[in-house]
Amino acid sequence: MTQNYAPDPALLAKAETLVEALPYMQRYAGKTFVVKYGGHAMGDPEAARDFAEDVVLMKAVGINVIVVHGGGPQIGAMLKRLGVESQFVGGLRVTDKETAQIAEMVLAGSINKEIVSWISGAGGRAVGISGKDGGLVLCEKVGGKREPDPNSGIERHVDLGFVGDPVAVDRSILDSLSKDGIIPVVAPVGIGADGHTYNINADTMAGAIAAEVKASRFFLLTDVPGVLDKDKQLLTDLDPARINALQQDGTITGGMIPKLETCIHAVENGVDAAVILDGRVPHAMLLEIFTRRGAGTLVRAAAA
Ligand SMILES: Nc1ncnc2c1ncn2[C@@H]1O[C@H](COP(=O)(O)OP(=O)(O)O)[C@@H](O)[C@H]1O
Ligand SMILES: CC(=O)N[C@@H](CCC(=O)OP(=O)(O)O)C(=O)O
């Protein structure tokens, strides 16, 4: 007995999607991608599950994925619960000794292990570390910032306390984990030569790691579709000169300034491209990596 076999169009579309992904899988196998997962992007449990699936799929097709996470809103919530005041200067949290302890507890304790659990739940193997582990990140106290005084408006110098800037990254612990099929998940906390614990902006931490491992792609998952122009239209491609112009004319403000400065640092120090993506969009990274459509804002160094 014979039967006409008409493939289900939905299944056929799935097969075509896989075939579309093939050249990208071949291009990226063996390459290193650094993913910065921001605190705003990780709010929704469904989006978190999609994020973990994307990371596990990337690893399964041979990409060495390194996750660096934030947690600013979650630190803020914990400080509020504990009745500790907190303020930001130039996008960085002023961090006294108590705040540094709480930030470490939230970042390296709860958030780090939660991301490890999500990745395990998606069938991957992850190990959570902070910049303190295996000598990963040595940092230096960030110099103070100039800020107008809220009362007088006169500029004053603000000491940020235990806020660190990565000055040396030792990639060996990342390489050991990656080689063994493990996805490193890194909390933005580091140690200084003075032995103190420092709170590091997660974009800065991720950028320093991306530059050290010469990542092919550096993804920054946030809560906007990418960099928007004055008419709220997505800017799909940027280079350092254009970013400087957008900063000068006030198109880029707030948290986007350190984010793009980190992208410039990364692409000028050996990272092929940085991409700012909306982490709330389901499977945002897979769409960017494995389809012709792409998403978000791609930042590259200026052509030589
Ligand atoms: N031109 C711009 N395009 C997009 N976002 C911008 C722009 N200028 C400022 N922003 C702000 O930058 C924010 C992203 O930075 P941030 O809050 O530090 O993100 P995250 O916590 O994910 O690191 C956006 O939510 C938006 O409010
Ligand atoms: C020094 C400094 O500001 N550290 C940040 C670290 C977390 C972070 O950067 O998280 P997001 O990426 O979610 O913003 C903070 O304390 O909020």
TrEMBL record:
Highest taxon of the lineage: Bacteria
Q: Which residues bind substrate?
A: 71-72, 93, 199
Q: What pathway, per the record?
A: Amino-acid biosynthesis; L-arginine biosynthesis; N(2)-acetyl-L-ornithine from L-glutamate: step 2/4
Question: Could you tell me where this protein is found in the cell?
Answer: Cytoplasm
Predominant localisation class: cytoplasm
Entry EC number(s): 2.7.2.8
MF-aspect GO terms: acetylglutamate kinase activity; ATP binding
Q: What UniProt keywords are attached to this protein's entry? A: Amino-acid biosynthesis, Arginine biosynthesis, ATP-binding, Cytoplasm, Kinase, Nucleotide-binding, Transferase
**Cross-referenced InterPro entries:** AceGlu_kinase-like_sf (IPR036393), AcgluKinase_fam (IPR004662), ArgB (IPR037528), Asp/Glu/Uridylate_kinase (IPR001048), Glu/AcGlu_kinase (IPR001057), NAGK-C (IPR041727)
Residue stretches making up the Aspartate/glutamate/uridylate kinase domain: 31-277
What Pfam families does the record point to? AA_kinase (PF00696)
Q: Which residues make up the annotated site Transition state stabilizer?
A: 36, 259
| Gene Ontology biological-process entries | L-arginine biosynthetic process via ornithine
From the UniProt record, list the coiled-coil ranges: none
Q: Which GO terms describe its cellular component?
A: cytoplasm
The protein's annotated catalytic reaction(s) are: N-acetyl-L-glutamate + ATP = N-acetyl-L-glutamyl 5-phosphate + ADP
Known function: Catalyzes the ATP-dependent phosphorylation of N-acetyl-L-glutamate.
Q: What protein name applies here?
A: Acetylglutamate kinase
